[in-house]
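Support reply, case 0932

Customer input (verbatim):
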Amino acid sequence: MKYDIVIIEDEVDLGNVVSEYLKLRGFTVRWFQSAADTLDYYRLHQLDNKLVIIDIQLPDMNGFDLSTEIVKLNPNQAFFFLTAHNEKHDRMRGLKIGAIDYISKPFEIEELVLRIGNIINKFPNTPMASKAMESVVTIGDISYQKDQLFVLLPDGKERSLTVREAEVLDHLSANINQVVKKKDLLIALWGNDDYFNGKSLEVFISRLRRLFKASGQVSIENVYGLGYILKVK
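Our regenerated output:
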């Protein structure tokens, strides 16, 4: 049995692209363009093995109100938001309702798939779920929120990560205070270690370094001709 996903998105082009791509990745998908159709379906079908992805701006009801109605029907329903809004109060409102995550438009489809995979990994009894991941990783005085792709810095500020930045950090944080070869990173993340991918990796390393300037304990150092070390004091 496949893992089922319900998408509520009124933008026809986006809804079609997302639903068709997820089907290609092995999911079963139901796509609705209104809150009313979603609730009609939800009341009639068992959703124990489903993830609900909700656009905040819908024609007949906003996504916050729709998610509130869904939670009334099933308090354990896993859901997250698609949104053009990125204000903190919108995020807080959704999290209070029970949202697992947010993804802001426009987004890369692979980022959406990664976030879906992270959420599925929280439900070990579902058929597609793999071994549960630890969602929060402590790196010195930094908290790395793997499921939500952000780091919490010592000054209390949150900084979002791109999917690729998170992948680089995953590899480095799995080998704290050890050399991670540049070639190994390139093969793992890009599939080859050519010159242009090497330059791309350097960009992502530089972005992570800028984030870690707020830390008194964490840094990324070059090992000339070999790779990088994520150092934690």
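We compared this against your earlier run and they match. Two observations from our side: The longest strand covers residues 50-55. The two ends are 47 Å apart (CA to CA). Please reopen the case if you see a mismatch on your end.
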